[in-house]
From TrEMBL, chain A:
Pathway where it operates: Protein modification; protein neddylation
UniProt-annotated catalytic positions: 207 (glycyl thioester intermediate)
Protein's recorded name: NEDD8-activating enzyme E1 catalytic subunit
GO biological process assignments: protein neddylation
One term of GO molecular function: ATP binding
InterPro entries recorded: E2-binding, ThiF/MoeB/HesA, ThiF_NAD_FAD-bd, Ub_act_enz_dom_a_sf, Uba3_N, Ubiquitin-activating_enz, UBQ-activ_enz_E1_Cys_AS
EC annotation from Swiss-Prot or TrEMBL: 6.2.1.64
UniProt keyword terms in alphabetical order: ATP-binding, Ligase, Nucleotide-binding, Ubl conjugation pathway
TrEMBL record, chain B:
PANTHER family: UBIQUITIN-CONJUGATING ENZYME E2
Family: Belongs to the ubiquitin-conjugating enzyme family.
GO MF annotation terms: ATP binding; NEDD8 transferase activity
Role description: Accepts the ubiquitin-like protein NEDD8/RUB1 from the ECR1-AXR1 E1 complex and catalyzes its covalent attachment to other proteins.
InterPro entries reported for this sequence: UBC, UBQ-conjugating_AS, UBQ-conjugating_enzyme/RWD
CDD domains: UBCc_UBE2F_UBE2M (cd23794)
Organism expressing this protein natively: [Myrmecia] bisecta
Residue ranges annotated for the UBC core domain, each copy included: 28-173
SMART domains xref list: UBCc
Catalytic residue positions: 111 (glycyl thioester intermediate)
Keywords: ATP-binding, Nucleotide-binding, Transferase, Ubl conjugation pathway
Entry protein name: UBC core domain-containing protein
Recorded metabolic or biological pathway in which this protein acts: Protein modification; protein neddylation
Length: 435, 183
C-alpha cells in the first residue's frame, strides 16, 4: 500500500532550490520519477551493511534495486541482519532480503542475485547507474573497483569522459569503526589509489607460535597453521567446517594448558581463525545511511557530494572526519592509458622500438616488458625465453584491436605504464593524413 | 561531478560499444606480479619455474642452490602461491625439500619475518627470494621453528654443519628424522 505523503520529505529535497545543491541541479518533480522508475542501483552484499542499505535505499525512493550476495543466512546473523528471521536460516540472503523489502515498501522492485560477484559478466554491472557496496573483504572491494574502473573512457588528453563513469559508493564497518566513500573512477581516487589505507592484518611470527606462545591467540594460530599440516597433512583446512574448527579449538586448548595460558574458547578460536571482529548494528546503520545519502546525491544532485572519504569512530562518543584523498596518477586501475599510435602490421619488436623512440614515453623506458591483460607478450628476465617468439608477431594479432590497453613495465618506472594502442583508420585518406 | 539524469541515454549507448577492446580480465595482484617478474634478478644458482605457463604468474617454484655456507651443495625447492590480493597480502611460501634448518619445520613452514609479521606491499618477490637465500647463508637459532636444529647450531656449530652436509650429500637421520639427500 502506498502511504499518503510517503515521499514528501524526498520531494522537499528534489523540488526546491537551495544553497547547498549540487552543480547543475534543477528542481524538478521528474527527478523522483526518474529515481523510482528508471534509475537502477546495485547493492553488493546483503549482510549487516546490506540489510541496512536495502532498507535505506527503498525508503529513499530508489524503485529498482538489484542485490547480489553469495551467502546463505546463518543463525549468528539474526541479531543485526534484521530482514532475516529464524525460519530463514539456510536460505540465500539476497533472495530473502529482496522479498522482505518488497513486502514492506510498496512499489519497490528488488531483484536478487544469489551468486558470486565474479560470476556475473561485465555487461551485468554496466546496466546500473550507481553501485553501492556493503562488503566485508578487501578482495571483493578490489574486484568491484576493477569492474567500476573498467568502464571509464579517456579522451586523447587523458581526461575521463563523464558519461562513462560508473559511480560507486563504498561502506565498511569493523566493530565501532566505519567508513563511507564515494568513488567516481577517473575523477576521484579509486580503491587501488589508496590501498595503503588498509592496515595489514596482525600476524604473529611462526617461531613465536612454535616456541614462545604468550596468548590464547598464539595457541590457536599454532594449532591452525602448524599442527593442522602436521597431523592432517594433505587435507585442506575449511574455516566453515564445524569439525575442523572444533579440532583446532581442542588442540589449542591442550597447548594453552601446557603453557598455562588462559582464554582459549571455541568462540575465540573462530574469531582468531576467521579474523572476526564483532559486528555492531549501530555502526552498520550509520555507515549505510551515509552511503545511501551519497547515492541519492549522485543521482539527483540535490546536494553537493561527499569529497571523498568519511570515517566514523564510535568507540568514545561519536567522531567523524571527512577527508579528500588524492588520486594516484600512476594507478593501474583508474589512470588513463597514454594514447599511442601504431599500425596493426608492426611487429611487437617494432612497437617496443617505437615506444622507446617516443620523445615523451621513451625517456621513461630502458628495457620495457609488455603485457596485454593477463597475457605476457614480452617479458625481460626470467620469462624472456618463454615470450621471445612474440617479438616477431604483429601487434594486430597479439592484442584485441584499436583501443587495446597494454601494460608496459620497466625498471625505470615506479608503476606499470598503461598505453592505449590506437590503430589508424583502415585507409588513410587522399592527403595521406592519419588522425 | 556528473549529472546522471541528463546523460543516462548517452551512457546506455556507450556501454554497448565500450566493452569491445578490453584485455583479458586480471586481478590487481597479477598486474603487480607482471612488474615483479619483469624485474626479477636471480642470484647464481637460483632458478624459477612456472608450472602453468608464462601467463599464470600466481603459482611458481623457486629452486635455491646455496653457493657458500653450511648448506652449500644442496638443492632446495620452494613453492610460491600468490593470492589475488597481492601485494596487500604476503606470498605464501613453503619449502618442498625436507631440510634440517632451525627456521624451517618438517612440514615446510618457514619462519621468515617478511613472509608474515613484517610483510609490506613495497616488498617484492625479489625481496622474498633474497630473504630465503639469506636464511640459508645465516640460519638464525634465536627464532627456531625446529628447536632441535636450533639447539645443535647454538651448542655445536661444527656438528650442525657436518650433519647438514651429510644429509645433503648422502641423506641422514638427525634427531630421529630422516632427511633424504638433496644435491
Amino acid at each position: 500500500m502506498e502511504l499518503a505523503g510517503r515521499w514528501c520529505d524526498l520531494d522537499m529535497l528534489l523540488t526546491r532550490q537551495g544553497n547547498l545543491v549540487g552543480p547543475g541541479f534543477e528542481p524538478d518533480p521528474a527527478l523522483r520519477e526518474f529515481l523510482q522508475e528508471d534509475c537502477r542501483i546495485l547493492c553488493v552484499g546483503a549482510g549487516g551493511l546490506g540489510c541496512e542499505l536495502l532498507k535505506d535505499l527503498a525508503l529513499s525512493g530508489f524503485g529498482n534495486i538489484d542485490v547480489i550476495d553469495m551467502d546463505t543466512i546463518d543463525v549468528s546473523n539474526l541479531n543485526r541482519q534484521f530482514l532475516f528471521r529464524m525460519k530463514d536460516v539456510g536460505k540465500p540472503k539476497a533472495e530473502v532480503a529482496a522479498e522482505r523489502v518488497m513486502a514492506r515498501v510498496a512499489g519497490v522492485k528488488v531483484t536478487p542475485h544469489f551468486c558470486r560477484i565474479e560470476e556475473k559478466p561485465i555487461e551485468f554491472y554496466s546496466e546500473f547507474h550507481v553501485i553501492i557496496l556493503g562488503l566485508d573483504s578487501l578482495e571483493a572491494r578490489r574486484y568491484m573497483n576493477q569492474v567500476a574502473c573498467s568502464f571509464v573512457e579517456f579522451d586523447a588528453a587523458g581526461s575521463p569522459d563523464p558519461s562513462t563513469i560508473k559511480p560507486m559508493v563504498d561502506g565498511g564497518t569493523e566493530g565501532f569503526k566505519g567508513h563511507a566513500r564515494v568513488i567516481l573512477p577517473g575523477f576521484t581516487p579509486c580503491f587501488d589509489c589508496t590501498l595503503w589505507l588498509f592496515p595489514p592484518q596482525t600476524k604473529f611470527p611462526l617461531c613465536t607460535l612454535a616456541e614462545t606462545p604468550r596468548s590464547a591467540a598464539h595457541c590457536i594460530e599454532y594449532a591452525h597453521l602448524i599442527q593442522w599440516d602436521r597431523e592432517r597433512s594433505g587435507e585442506e583446512f575449511d574455516a566453515d567446517s564445524d569439525e575442523h574448527m572444533k579440532w583446532v579449538y581442542e588442540k589449542a586448548l591442550v597447548r594453552a594448558k601446557e603453557y598455562g595460558i588462559p582464554g582459549v574458547t571455541f568462540q575465540h578460536t573462530q574469531g582468531v581463525v576467521k579474523n572476526i571482529i564483532p559486528a555492531i548494528a549501530s555502526t552498520n546503520a550509520i555507515v549505510a545511511a551515509a552511503c545511501t545519502l551519497e547515492a541519492l546525491k549522485i543521482i539527483t544532485m540535490c546536494s553537493t557530494g561527499m569529497n571523498n572519504y568519511m570515517m566514523y569512530v564510535g568507540t568514545d562518543g561519536v567522531y567523524t572526519h571527512t577527508a579528500a584523498y588524492e588520486k594516484d596518477p600512476a594507478c593501474q586501475m583508474c589512470s588513463p592509458g597514454v594514447p599511442f599510435e601504431v599500425r596493426p602490421d608492426m611487429t611487437l619488436s617494432q612497437v617496443i622500438e617505437a615506444l622507446k623512440a617516443d620523445p615523451q614515453l621513451g625517456r621513461q623506458l630502458n628495457e620495457p616488458s609488455i603485457s596485454y591483460g593477463a597475457t605476457n607478450l614480452y617479458m625481460r628476465g626470467v620469462l624472456e625465453q618463454a615470450t621471445r617468439d612474440n617479438l616477431e608477431k604483429t601487434i594486430g594479432e597479439l592484442v584485441g584491436g584499436d583501443g587495446s590497453v597494454i601494460q608496459v613495465n620497466d625498471r625505470k618506472l615506479l608503476a606499470p605504464l598503461r598505453v592505449k594502442l590506437r590503430f589508424p583508420a583502415e585507409s588513410a585518406d587522399a592527403n595521406g593524413m592519419v588522425h | 561531478m556528473i549529472k546522471l539524469f541528463s546523460v543516462k541515454e548517452k551512457q546506455k549507448k556507450e556501454a554497448a560499444s565500450a566493452n569491445g577492446a578490453k584485455g583479458v580480465k586480471q586481478s590487481a595482484g597479477e598486474l603487480r606480479l607482471q612488474k615483479d617478474m619483469s624485474e626479477l634478478n636471480l642470484s647464481k644458482g637460483t632458478t624459477i619455474n612456472f608450472p602453468e605457463g608464462k601467463d599464470k604468474l600466481l603459482i611458481f617454484d623457486i629452486t635455491l642452490r646455496p653457493q657458500e655456507g653450511i648448506y652449500k651443495g644442496g638443492v632446495f625447492n620452494f613453492s610460491f602461491n600468490i593470492s589475488t590480493s597481492y601485494p596487500h597480502d604476503a606470498p605464501k611460501v613453503k619449502c618442498k625439500t625436507k631440510v634440517y634448518h632451525p627456521n624451517i619445520d618438517l612440514e615446510g613452514n618457514i619462519c621468515l619475518n617478511i613472509l608474515r609479521e613484517d610483510w609490506k606491499p613495497v616488498l617484492s618477490i625479489n625481496s622474498v627470494i633474497y630473504g630465503l637465500e639469506y636464511l640459508f647463508l645465516d640460519p638464525n637459532p634465536e627464532d627456531p621453528l625446529n628447536k632441535e636444529a636450533a639447539a645443535m647450531l647454538s651448542n655445536n656449530a661444527r656438528q650442525f654443519e657436518s650433519s647438514v652436509q651429510a644429509s645433503i650429500h648422502r641423506g641422514a637421520y638427525i634427531d630421529g628424522n630422516y632427511f633424504p639427500p638433496c644435491k
